[in-house]
Amino acid sequence: MKAILVKQPGSADQLYFGQADKPVPKSNELLVKIHCFALNRMDIVQREGRYPLPPEAGPILGVEFAGIVESAGASALRFKPGDRVFGLAYGGAYAQYIAVDEGSVHLLGSLTMEMGSSLLECWYTAYQAVNDIGNMKAGEDILIHAASGGVGTAAIQLAKLAGARRIFVTAGSPEKIEYCRKVGATHPINYREQSFKDVVLRETDGRGVDIICDYLLASYFGDNIDSLAKDGRMSLQGAMGGSVAEHVNLLPILFKRLHIEGSTLRSRSLEYQRRLSEAFSRNVLPHIESGEMFWHIDRVFDWEDIQDAHRLMEAASFTGKIVIRVTDNLSDPE
């Protein structure tokens, strides 16, 4: 089959079309002919050779996809050939075909291929941060960093659904600030112009927020600790701001009884991801299908333009998600 491969670790120029073995589904798996896949920041890190891959992931990039079931393993009974589906895998989505556990797949229903392919990594990550680790309750305050991207878009709306009192977010331009406000943020903060810690403490009368969803790690760690209320919870989901925090006062972790937990979705077990898939299907997907929850795809590229798509993601000059169409497979009716 045709796939997008990496010549050697490096820039987007290292991406090229090559041939890979067509996967054979295991007993619990589906073979899906991919129509669309979505980009994630981990794709950039993996392309550069800096991502610690789980053992289930192969060399082909990509975890999110949508397409049509071509065949099913002997014990995969929930779907049949011809079903339009979207799913999340450990890797392999930058290709014409993917084999994936049937518990990691959903029927598209009324969703488009483009939309379905772009949902799961972001919504699962946000659900972990807000609902599982954050354990958000009605009336609590939350701070969401890097909020104009896909995970932030999802986290804002999950916080709103949970009954958040105040939703603080950070973003880096007036356009992104307005985007976050449209999605549902009550207190958007341009981090280039204001200290998020100062805004949070001023607006909460010094108390701080109950939950922080963070993707920067080192660069925000100290101010995040200062911005949390007593018994606050912080979910660490990325390290865009570096991995070594210097000159950080850790005493507030003790005195404020803070709960800090890190998580990367891709490293989770298949059983964990199945449970998360079920929770998403039960608690979130109906709100997306009904249109109650907003979702935004910034750009759709043909896969021949994958290098340009990676450069756009690296420039961070977008909101929401970037989706790729597998043009070699689009003769199939949707």
Jot down its keywords.
single chain; 334 residues; alpha/beta; seven-stranded mixed beta sheet; six-stranded parallel beta sheet; 11 helices; 15 strands
Protein described:
The protein is α/β, with parallel strands linked by helices and 334 residues long. Strand 12, helix 8 and strand 13 form a beta-alpha-beta unit. Helix 3 crosses helix 4. The longest helix has 14 residues. The mean pLDDT is 95.
Give a brief rundown of this model.
With 334 residues, this protein is α/β, with parallel strands linked by helices. 29% of the residues lie in helices and 26% in strands. The protein contains eleven helices and 15 strands.
How do the strands and helices of this protein lay out in sequence?
Layout: E1 2-6, E2 15-19, E3 29-38, H1 41-47, E4 64-72, E5 84-88, E6 97-101, E7 105-107, H2 113-117, H3 120-133, E8 141-144, H4 150-161, E9 166-171, H5 174-183, E10 187-190, H6 196-203, E11 209-214, H7 221-227, E12 228-236, H8 251-255, E13 259-262, H9 270-283, H10 285-289, E14 297-302, H11 306-315, E15 321-325
Parallel strand pairs: 8-9, 8-11, 9-10, 11-12, 12-13, 14-15
Antiparallel strand pairs: 1-2, 3-4, 3-6, 3-15, 4-5, 5-7
From the helix content, strand content and strand pairing, which structural class follows? alpha/beta
| Global geometry | globular
Radius of gyration of CA atoms, rounded to a whole number = 20 Å
Helical fraction:
25-40%
Q: What is the N-to-C order of secondary-structure elements (H for helix, E for strand)?
A: EEEHEEEEHHEHEHEHEHEHEHHEHE
Residue-averaged pLDDT, rounded?
95
Describe the sheet with the most strands.
Answer: 7 strands, mixed
The low-pLDDT segments are none
Strand content: 25-35%
Alpha-carbon distance between the two ends: 21 Å
Q: How many runs of DSSP E, i.e. beta strands?
A: 15
The count of helical stretches stands at 11
